[in-house]
Amino acid sequence: MALLLFTAIMTTSEEAELCFPQLNSSCRKIMRPHSVSMLIYITLSSISVLTVVLNLLVIISISHFKKLHTPTNVLLLSLAVSDFCVGFLMIFQIILIDGCWFLGDLMCAVHFVLDYIITSASIGTMVLISIDRYVAIYYPLLYPTKVTQNRVRICVSVCWVACVLCHCLILKDNVEQPGRYNTCLGECVVVIEYYAGIVDVFISFIGPVTVIVILYVRIFVVAVSQARALRSHIRDVTLQGSVRITVKKSELKAARTLGVVVVVFLICVCPFFCVTLSGGDSVVSVSSAAFVMCLFFLNSFLNPLIYAFFYPWFIKCIKVILTLQILKPGSCDANIL
């Protein structure tokens, strides 16, 4: 997944300084103007810190307040956990800015394993979110009984466990013999077998993205038709019908909000995979690699901002947390909806 990107980052000019000056087998640093390097460091560090803090607020909010314990929010919690981890993984990317890896071969392998697992878990959670909204819109009467918190928790757990097992198996050789594919000291590279790579791309990218797009196209069609029906029959509904309309409106709003999350996710993630898949022997420029990596990380930073914009309860939760009202007895029962 990230092999070509990091390989590209390690490809530098011959005039670059060595990562380990005392060793002839050392890799070469990427040489940039000091101002450019500082700008990159500050930008990535800021995004990393904000990503960790904002997603931590989402995790605390959904975990603490009982009113937020819904099947859909369980999925948002899983997404926030993966985004929270991405914020920490950005530290490794910051270390690699100059094209040198100083943490050893084992940590390099661990970094890639975590990268694969968290990326796949995020995409898997997006698929579950799409399925959740599809069932809520297409089968509104069955949704409360078929989609329960326990079932969603089981699906999320299966998703994470499957991602861990799958990518530990795919990267097994790299973990057992860390650094076996490095060409110089200070390099961080992993290699996946050809067929395993094809399976991984299909499971982690092509398959999930196809499912997400198909489901949300169908959701959009239903949402448009229901919105027209609501507008045309709003004057003739009974009180009972009004209740049903309110429910439908809330589901449509949730679908629209999570649709924004999914679209932003696809915009940020697709370039990452496209550059990665641009060809085994083709040269990926350092600038394009850096751009898609930053775009990929930016998605984890944007998700909490989307919640803040579309979900009033998130703003209320932030106020309660920052003012330490969350420490008061019984705060978990507060009505923040």
TrEMBL record:
Q: What is any one of the record's Gene Ontology cellular component terms?
A: plasma membrane
Please name the Pfam families in this protein's record.
7tm_1 (PF00001)
Indicate whether Transmembrane appears among the record's keywords: yes
Q: Which residues cross the membrane?
A: 39-62, 74-97, 109-131, 152-172, 201-225, 258-278, 290-314
Keywords in UniProt for this one? Cell membrane, G-protein coupled receptor, Membrane, Receptor, Transducer, Transmembrane, Transmembrane helix
Similarity-based family: Belongs to the G-protein coupled receptor 1 family.
- Name used for this protein in its record: Trace amine-associated receptor 13c-like
- Origin organism is Salarias fasciatus
The lineage, from the top, is: Eukaryota, Metazoa, Chordata, Craniata, Vertebrata
